[in-house]
Design goal:
By secondary structure, the chain is an alpha+beta fold. It is built from three helices and 21 strands. It is elongated. The N and C termini lie far apart (about 90 Å).
Amino acid sequence: MILMLSIVIAFIAIIGGFKFFQIKAAIAQQSSFQMPPETVTTIVVKPEQWGTTINAIGTVNAVNGVTVSADLPGVVEQIAFDSGRSVNKGDVLVRLDTKQERAQLTAAEAQRDLTRLAFERNKDLLAKGIVPQSNYDQAAAEWKQAEARAGEIRATIERKTIRAPFSGVLGIRQINLGQYLAGGAAIVSLQAVRPVFVDFTVPQQDIALLSRGAEVIAKSESIEEFGKISAFDSVVDEATRNIRVQATFDNHSVKLRPGMFVEAQLAKGARTQVVTVPTSAIAYAPFGDSVFVVEDVKDLKSGKSYRGVRQQFVKLGGARGDQVAVLTGLKAGEEIVTSGVFKLRPGAAVTVNNTMQPPNNPAPKPQDS
């Protein structure tokens, strides 16, 4: 029993010692383990002269824009316009049937002529003292009433001839020949597109930097038009603290159409020197935006240096195409990571491979935009 117990104790001691040294070796190996370097692309930042601009989303509005409608009910007798054509102020667009009104006008004019003759007759008789003044006054009143009645019918006939209230471009007609139109029924849209307004909003802190007459550029796909600020709204929106601004564009090309979405760019002030980086280099976070600067990092345990990254928080300015301006936190000449920032941490080792770089164009023109 004593021999057997000695053998078991010796066996357990041997196994325990083996496991102890095995675990100790694993701990030592783990403590000296380093994550493999991450492959990233980099760029050396440099200062550039940027004109400070304000970008805003704008909507094109017509200086004058209405839906032409019927003033009085009637049947469409003539359509004197084509959809999409330009018209001048006063051009006839639609004529409604006025046969009944013209017959009434003939009767009213005959009654007017009769009352005029009666008035002239009473005027001569009054001069000779044959009729009293009251007969003359009654004849004069009846003549004026008949004249007013004829004028009223002529006005009704004129109101059934629908004309363009101003010069502009017509839309697509919404009526057909022979159609009965109720009063106020829509006929066609009419928009004055030379010039046009572009309405947009800017933050209240930028209002002091803008003035009437300042140049505005409106862009949309292949369209680029130049205009000037013509008006500011009298109040600031309490919900957004933005103020509405209106710019006027000559629109000689007639490419800006009411309702169109455009990007409005306004010059904010003098050109300033900033450090520009690709937008892909920015690590956006609620607690602050940052970039990763590539530099030699010293390992505290081994004392050796390796190529690693340092996280640097920055303050961003405006954007231009694929680039964003860094106002503070970054110096010209520093090498920063431009792609792969999402997989980095402070002190991480990196390997630089710049065979393929992310876009860094201040004025990109993607094919599928």
